[in-house]
Amino acid sequence: MIDNYYKLENSRNNYARTAELIMLKTFDDIVGAENIEKIVFEFSMNGNYFIYPNFTPSFRSVLTKEKGQEIIRKAWMKMHDYIEADLPITKKVVKVDTAINMFRERGMDDIAKLLGFRRTSKVTLSCFEGYETYLYGSVASSSGAIKSFDLHPYRNGFFLMLPEPDDPDAVLDIDIVDNLFNAQAEAYKMAHTFDCENVADLNEHICQGRTTELILSSESIFDNKLNHIAMDIINSGKKFVLLAGPSSSGKTSTAFRLSFALRSYGILPRVISADNYYLDYAKRRLDENGNPDFESLYALDLELFNSDMNRLINGESVELPYYNFKTGRREYHGDCIALGDRNILIIEGIHCLNEQFSSSIPSDKKYKVCVSALPALNIDEHNRITSTDLRLIRRLVRDERSRAHGASLTLQRWPDVRKGEENNIFPFTGEADAILNTAIAYELAAIKPYAERILFGVPRDSDEYFKAKELLKILDFVIPISTELIPPYSIVREFIGGSCLDVG
Length: 504
What we know:
four-stranded antiparallel β-sheet, five-stranded parallel β-sheet, alpha/beta, about 40% helix
């Protein structure tokens, strides 16, 4: 399964880069390179890529909404023509200095700056019909490899829609989750204001001696977001905060940090983990491999949880359970709580956005928070750092530090983790009252020394080596920083260690 998972991921990335190259050439044809400052691949949503075409001021001044949609329609037709013609895509190896000068002359400064931090003497460019760019990873050998695609206008940009690699002829559909889109768009807006949109920008901050400023500013941005959500919770009058997010999104740190933000406004919150309501090991359902299932909603004692919450709503005191992972059983240690006027209960767990999990709590009493790492920091304008890769790097470092799991084991288990996220978290993101982005601008520079050491330990003959090599290539672009100045309460500390919070 693991081999198939990473092969499918590589196949999709290859397909996406090929479509991207054809699309970039198409926009040069239709709009003219002289009218394009840069075309930025900002983020993905449900496998579709949101793209912002940043045109020159003079071109934007005459660009209407109708004209923009006409450009996208013409781009779709031109891309279709290129794909039908099945034209060759080639590679070209040039000296790094040559590539830097070429990209500067074309106004592609982000890529030129990035290559300035390369330690190798040569770089491989992807070439299609006279258009040349640097793409992180391989592409197909011809434009005919693209079997299906679409361009969907949305707000100030558009989505490049692509099929799954195992079903290339599928009818394409797009399901835009507005609150998630807004959170990602806000992250990019903040990165632009902060002048840290890509790895080259990050490296420049570090090289110019602004590391302390970078760390403190990043943490202040996160604090501001937390305080905004804390005030929204207080103003809503809701007593239950349900907090969920995918693996390594920083849920535990966020739950504690949110509780401190609430305390600063006179609230007395309490943080509990939904994991303490796991069914005893012997009562657990089995997954398809015959192992006890920890990911399913039904691994939790939903009846007990909802009974306890209902009693709290009715003003009763409840003794909370504790799940002992060593014995596989729930225990009680006299931990009793009640909800007074100043109390709020923060419940953290992967199923907290699912309405079925908290069915006994009326909607007007619960506030749902989705925690996710949505990196605004890209490699450059054409190459993204995905949320999935950022979270995987985080998890590799945390698992090695706190669970004694080597990189190979974490990479082996990652496909099952991703499957659980797709089934249990992402379908409910749209129900969140707030989305909190936990990606920190400087974190790759802080986490690099830890992650590289772990990833270099993955055997070359293993199924996981290809993914390890891909992550190492991302980290290779980043200049590391000392972790001494990172605050002990930072989300980053949950992964690299040294947190003052009880994050394991």
